[in-house]
Amino acid sequence: MCIRDRSYLVTSNWLNALVSDVPGVDPMNKRRVEFFMKMLTDAFSPSNFLVSNPAALREAMATHGESLLRGMENFAEDLDRGGGQLAISQTDYEMFKIGENVATAPGKVVFQNEILQLLQFTPTTEQVYEIPLVIFPPWINKFYILDLRPENSMIRWLTDQGITVFVASWVNPDQTLATKTFEDYMREGIYEGTAAAMKQAGVEEVNTVGYCIGGTLLSSTLGHMTARGDTRIKSATFFAAQQDFAEAGDLLLFTNEDWLKDLEQRMDAGGGVLSGQSMADTFNALRSNDLIWSFFVNNYLMGKEPKPFDLLFWNSDQTRMPKTLHMFYLRKFYGENALAKGELVMDNVRIDLSQVKTPVYVQSSKEDHIAPARSVYRGAKLFGGPVTFTLAGSGHIAGVINAPVAQKYQHWTNAELPATVEEWMADAKETPGSWWPHWKTWLTARSGKMVPARDPAKGPLKPIEDAPGSYVKVKS
């Protein structure tokens, strides 16, 4: 390591430690300052500047300056693509086509309303379990994280296990949907989506999955259903989903009231919606070295094109956020932690998760920076019924989307649910590979008898169009 790099590391470590060691500061304020100091010191890394990046200088000399010209062209293209705001390319976007080489699992759109299309996927077995599975992904992203490629598609894997799979494909909302509320997403999303799936499958109950914010909505809706005596949901699985936000991930740093007022102003200026690019910028900032500076160096200093990568194509395909829905979510959950405190009211019903007796399977990931395992575990402790908690290796995405065929990472299981995740981990059993088979055993035990496979084209609901549908193709 050269003197310049050693000097940078010493200085950045000193600055970060200087902030961390300040006594008598509010913990959240300290955490916020630590985060932004880390962003600042990451930005000033010598590798992010042409004159102090030996690899970029060598490339410029080897190409007689052509790499710098290509870098400027890449910069101009990204600036144009962002409408005057720099939108750093993370992959070759022209290489991927939704419905052609990503999101290719066959099926039909069997129901739709203003906020979602409900997809039913074609079975791959002659018989299926009687109780279908309805998956509610986060509406901040698009559903095809569950169906990137055939070899890592959770949707295809589930159908291969004999499970009838329905998935909500959320709308990419425009200004006409700016006043949609969290309660609207409960009624038109969970209630109407599960009702359509039950009608299509000819059953009176369904198993469900909520991923990330989709899981926060699902758990809130479970509380609402419990208060109303609605027992349609036989089981609920949560992927990287939070109910207790007291120890939430780094997004918590962006939710103090001053920032929320600024966010409201930006959404008002945008016609009542938050742009997809704003969402992308926020999530990229949480992992700035991986998702910002590595591409800054590659694209602009080295003058290279980013490599094709389906996950980063999906990551950049962000959706807009309706103002009323988004501000309610940020204030009530991140700001007030109302669901965990039993103070959340939806549709005039106070939500009490301790009254929810539905069997619950909770998946978390060891390196998740958005829904940390400790935060997810706190949420698991809120439910009043049987809870199975599992910890997977890796993070918010790779920890969830880890097909068994990949033979990657590991997972931990423990039938008990002690007071803290540290106590849970102390007695947990580690198993190499994907957690999906463990979940499958739990899920199929709650999926009823075997029945003839259901053709999406021949159910009571008339197909509207082929999967993946039209909602998922709307760009921000």
The low-pLDDT segments are: none
Query: Globular, elongated, flat, extended or rod-shaped: what is the shape?
Result: globular
- Tell me what portion of residues adopts beta-strand conformation: 5-15%
Major beta sheet summary: 11 strands, mixed
How would you describe the oligomerization state of the chains in this entry?
single chain
What class, by secondary structure content? alpha/beta
CA-CA gap between termini? 43 Å
Helical segment tally? 16
Mean pLDDT: 93
What is the share of helical residues? 25-40%
Say how many strands there are. Answer: 17
The largest sheet has its strands arranged as: 15-14-13-12-7-6-4-5-2-1-17
Q: Can you tell me about this structure?
A:
By secondary structure, this protein is α/β, with parallel strands linked by helices. It has 16 helices and 17 strands. It has helices at residues 3-20, 27-43, 54-62, 66-81, 154-160, 182-201, 213-228, 257-269, 276-286, 288-301, 310-316, 323-335, 338-341, 373-380, 421-426, 436-444, and strands at residues 107-112, 116-121, 127-129, 133-136, 165-170, 206-211, 233-239, 273-274, 321-322, 345-346, 349-350, 360-365, 387-392, 410-413, 429-432, 450-452, 465-466. The strands form four sheets. An eleven-stranded mixed β-sheet has the order 15-14-13-12-7-6-4-5-2-1-17, sandwiched between helices. Helix 1 packs antiparallel against helix 2 (27-43), helix 6 crosses helix 7 and helix 8 (257-269) runs antiparallel to helix 12. The chain is globular.
